[in-house]
Amino acid sequence: MTMTKVNSAADSPDRVLGHPLFRDAPPEVACLLLRDAAVLHVEDGDVLFREGEDAIEYLYVLSGGIEVLRHTQDGQERVFHIFRSGQLLAETAMFMTHGRYPMNARARGDAITLCLKRSGLQAACRAWPDLSMRLLARLSDRVYQRVNEVEWFSDSTAAQRLADYLLRLRPGQDASVRLPLTQRQLAAHLGVRAETLSRLLADWVAQGRITGARRDWTLHDLAFLDDLAQPVRRSF
């Protein structure tokens, strides 16, 4: 991994000020947010931070993708989210009392990120209360999302979770989807055994519900998948 000076408009740290959290920030607050910021170019598989390390920086993705993950007790990877261009990650870790990253962050393909300082974010919150309120709303939404996920895992079957996941991947009305995770990672994400996921996919292929292999799939029976997923969805 290499820290570089800004060398193009595409890498400009000012881009982060267009994020909904920072939009309309007063000039003095913008200066605090960008204080000591650095552009980081990373290659596929590079680790940006590890679980348990001191959380002194958060990231804004300028291009490419960054995945956050943990390792399960049996050594499997569980990918929680993939952050793309224009998204912030680890900003909430800047306020955790233990002061450590709760997950690992790794480049998915070549990527460019802006590294921003915890001290600057905290100073900006003290100087501009609107930012604190925006962060509080963001955290509240995430807590609500996690509560829904706990319910989703506890009250749904493996088939329901897989159907819901596949339907959420659809780009518009397209019936083709590309899995962002390996099947082993997807099994961990859905809370099922890899063998269970493989069997479900094979059964649906045999029934003509879907076709495909590995990461590329076509959903033929959307009504079937929607009926499966409907009981585990919330209206808000």
TrEMBL record:
The keyword DNA-binding applies. The keyword Disulfide bond does not apply. Residues 156-223 form the HTH crp-type domain. PROSITE patterns: CNMP_BINDING_3, HTH_CRP_2. Keywords: DNA-binding, Transcription, Transcription regulation. GO terms for molecular function: DNA binding; DNA-binding transcription factor activity. InterPro entries: cNMP-bd_dom, cNMP-bd_dom_sf, Env_Response_Regulators, HTH_CRP, RmlC-like_jellyroll, WH-like_DNA-bd_sf, WH_DNA-bd_sf. Residues 21-142 form the Cyclic nucleotide-binding domain. One of its GO terms (cellular component) is cytosol. PANTHER family: CRP FAMILY TRANSCRIPTIONAL REGULATORY PROTEIN, HTH-TYPE TRANSCRIPTIONAL REGULATOR ARCR. This is Crp/Fnr family transcriptional regulator. It comes from Castellaniella ginsengisoli. The lineage of its organism: Bacteria, Pseudomonadati, Pseudomonadota, Betaproteobacteria, Burkholderiales.
